[in-house]
Amino acid sequence: MHAAMLIYSTNRAAPAVRDQWPLVTLDSLLRRVDQVEWTPELHAIFAAAVEKVGVDRAVPSQILADMGTAGRGLTRQNIASHLQKHRARCLLCAFGALARTRAG
Predict the structure, then answer these.
(1) Sign of the alpha-carbon dihedral angle for 47, 48, 52, 58
(2) Backbone phi, then psi, for 5, in 5-degree steps?
(3) Residue 73, by phi and psi: left (phi above 0), alpha (psi -120 to 50) or beta?
(4) For the chain, give me the number of helices (H) and strands (E)?
(5) Is residue 6 pLDDT above 60, yes or no?
(6) The pLDDT of residue 86 is above 80
(7) Whether pTM exceeds 0.85
């Protein structure tokens, strides 16, 4: 049974059954893991992998494979999070460029 399911199920179970389940707290579910330090060099390799297929078509597993040994130690979730931030930055840059062309 998944940990999240245990949290929801504990409220409905009989007290005798509830006491036998493992203790799952919100803190244990939300425990923070070490963050990846995205150095300029690592980001450049990431950006090259993204540009290879295009920002709109890039998927984390493909980026991780294209990064090769530079991506060793990174997870799909690390890449997905960085891709989301990268896409947001690309949108902000595009909107800024559009605003500058309309204003000038």
Answers:
(1) negative
(2) -70, -35
(3) left
(4) 6, 0
(5) no
(6) yes
(7) no
> What CATH class has 37-103?
mainly alpha
Amino acid of residue 1 = M
Domain spans of the chain, in order of start: 1-31, 37-103
User: Across residues 81-104, what is the average pLDDT?
Assistant: 84
31 residue type, one letter: R
pLDDT tens, position by position, 31-60 = 666 688 999 999 999 999 999 999 889 999
32: DSSP letter:
P
Looking at residue 32, its pLDDT comes to 61
Predicted local distance difference test score (pLDDT) of residue 70:
87
User: What are the distances in angstroms from CA 39 to CA 45, 53, 55, 91?
Assistant: 10, 22, 20, 22
Strand boundaries in 1-104, DSSP class E:
none
Distance CA 77, CA 99 (A): 33
